């Protein structure tokens, strides 16, 4: 007899529905075929929260999770849905006025100093023993 791992799965069970069924076979979020970057922020609108009980399971979960701004990547991870499924459903919800989508400005020049400060800040977080991580 196989043993089950101790404790419940923190994220819940993996959905049993195939991604192509959730998106009705679509693989592109919009007619132009452009995909939302994973860092795109989405937030539920008042209309989206008002019709929450009339949405499909996955759409309901996305709108409910977006009471606070969330990125596409965060939603996919939290709901354990395929990233492209979240992109497609988020675009559908945006078109219906149930989500507001904030796509990051890709024309902005990246500042390496910001990335360096983020890395330094992450390294300053102590590990489980309370010891800061090594620096390069």
Question: What's the gist of this structure?
Answer:
The protein has 136 residues and is mainly alpha-helical. It contains six helices and three strands, in the order αβααβααβα.
The sequence of SSEs as H and E is HEHHEHHEH
Number of distinct helices: 6
Major sheet size, sense and barrel closure: 3 strands, antiparallel
Distance between the termini: 48 Å
Number of E-state strands? 3
**Mean pLDDT, all residues:** 76
Arrangement of strands in the largest sheet: 2-1-3
Structural class: mainly alpha
Spans of at least 5 consecutive residues with low confidence: 7-11
Rg over CA atoms: 19 Å
The portion of residues forming beta strands comes to 5-15%
Which range best describes the helical content: under 10%, 10-25%, 25-40%, 40-55%, 55-70% or over 70%? 25-40%
Overall 3D form: elongated
Give the secondary structure arrangement, pairings included.
Blueprint: H1 19-22, E1 41-44, H2 46-50, H3 57-65, E2 70-71, H4 72-79, H5 83-95, E3 99-102, H6 112-124
Antiparallel strand pairs: 1-2, 1-3
What are the salient characteristics of this protein?
single chain
